[in-house]
Amino acid sequence: MASNQVRASHILIKHQGSRRKASWKDPEGDVIRKTTRDSAVSQLKSLREDIITGKAKFEDVASRYSDCSSAKRGGDLGLFLFLFILTLIFGS
What we know:
The protein is α+β, with helices and mostly antiparallel strands.
């Protein structure tokens, strides 16, 4: 990895307000349509606590719970140019 690159990973929990109400683990969107935003946030907070306290590994949690197709890679989104990330966050 070059010094101007960062590796990003995430866990996505979809909910009723998600634009696309289907995922690799819920192709018909049955669970997603019933999941409130508050419920998704609560689940993410609980998963975060398990990761921070060492009860679970990030990659394992992402593989099991994330609605993103990156779940098959433990939530790994790959490498990004550091400047690209700053541009997305700060919009210049």
